[in-house]
Design goal:
Number of domains: 3
Number of strands: 8
Number of helices: 11
Structural class: alpha/beta
CATH topology of the largest domain: Nucleotidyltransferase, domain 5
Radius of gyration: 27 Å
CATH class of the largest domain: Alpha Beta
Shape: elongated
Largest sheet: 6 strands, mixed
Length: 355
């Protein structure tokens, strides 16, 4: 049976006398490691270069020190916050018999003082406190992030790169339209394939041709736009080829099944499979929390109000699910889920959010 990703609490009993706890505060120039070592009263603290081998030597040294004072270390756990470095270190230490945990950064409660002290040493103390609470099974200390494999991370890259290129394409088009409007030229569509040929014939509102420097800038933008389109087409073509080469293997079969639904294309299906359906989430509420589609109530005393969607999860998945819900209402109006969502835009927005 597939194991559900329930990272809200530790499922392993915490043996304090035989478990060494290590937390790591990571930055671009250095790492700061802190630990709770059985048999050692003080909490060791060591600044390191960003080198996993040096970290491994440090952890082994702490373990040897604990064994010298008569403590047998049977388990080593390492935790750090999710950030720029991703998950490579977690996979690296896991291959060396160390249990890695990646803490969701926004799940750690911090002081709300206007000018609170913020140092790496204080951050390691805070991480140790919340990590020990999580290991003991106490609720609401922090949340962990599922550690993906290298193959799972790589499978998400095409969809994310395409989304970035789509945003770049939109920025180039908007920049060209803004430049033309400054000359009084309206109605010209630079996104059309024949736009470069039609650009020469455009005249400003004053009846003169486009100035040479502006014309050169627009030509460069159109060349850049054509290059971005080529990149997008290459990504889409490569994805279709992968689906054709292995149509019934793992996620490809799920993508093809979802793409067969009216209103769901290959891009949406691939995003849903790679970003969320490949995760073994506990239930549909966990799916909503991951996507940031849960509510954010504001209740205090007699005050009761709803501030809308929390928007605290995966923004890519959240946008895809909202767009999918609107497409469902457009292409499958007669379905059971689509009933009762017609009267007024406000009712439609609320109904889409709840679904």
């Amino acid at each position: 049976m597939t194991q559900v990703d329930d990272l809200s609490r530790s499922l392993i009993a915490f043996e304090q006398n035989s478990t060494m706890v290590v937390v790591l505060e990571m930055s671009q120039s250095s790492w700061l490691a802190a630990g709770v070592v059985p048999g050692i009263e003080r909490r060791p603290l060591k600044k390191l270069d960003p080198d996993p081998t040096a970290l491994l030597r440090l952890v082994e040294g702490w373990r040897d020190h604990a064994m010298k004072v008569g403590r047998m270390i049977t388990r080593i756990v390492l935790a750090f916050e999710a950030g720029r470095d991703g998950f490579w270190l977690a996979r690296w230490v896991r291959a060396r018999s160390i249990e890695p945990f990646v803490i969701h950064s926004t799940s750690v409660a911090v002081s709300r003082e206007h000018r609170r002290a913020k140092t790496d040493r204080l951050d390691t103390e805070m991480l140790i406190r919340v990590f020990l609470g999580w290991l003991r099974g106490e609720p609401r200390h922090c949340k962990m992030v599922a550690i993906p494999t290298l193959e799972e991370e790589d499978a998400r890259r095409p969809s994310r790169e395409r989304e970035s290129l789509i945003g770049e394409r939109t920025r180039i088009i908007n920049r060209m339209k803004a430049a033309l409007i400054r000359l009084g030229i309206r109605g010209f569509k630079p996104e059309l394939l024949k736009a470069p040929q039609r650009l020469e014939a455009q005249h400003t509102a004053e009846g003169v041709p486009i100035p040479p420097n502006m014309l050169d800038e627009l030509r460069r933008d159109m060349a850049r736009l054509a290059w971005v389109r080529e990149q997008i087409n290459a990504i889409e073509q490569a994805r279709l080829e992968r689906l054709e080469q292995a149509p019934s293997s793992g996620p490809h079969a799920m993508v093809r099944m979802l793409a067969s639904i009216i209103g769901v294309g290959v891009e949406t299906a691939d995003m849903l499979v790679q970003e969320i359906l490949s995760r073994n989430l506990r239930d549909r509420r966990a799916v909503a929390r991951y996507a940031g589609l849960t509510g954010s109530p504001d209740e205090s005393g007699v005050k009761r109000r709803e501030k809308g969607l929390a928007k605290a999860g995966n923004a890519r998945v959240r946008r895809g699910l909202i767009q999918l819900a609107w497409r469902f209402l457009r292409f499958q109006k007669e379905s059971a889920l689509g009933n009762g969502i017609e009267p007024g835009p406000k009712v439609r927005r609320e109904s889409v959010r709840r679904r």
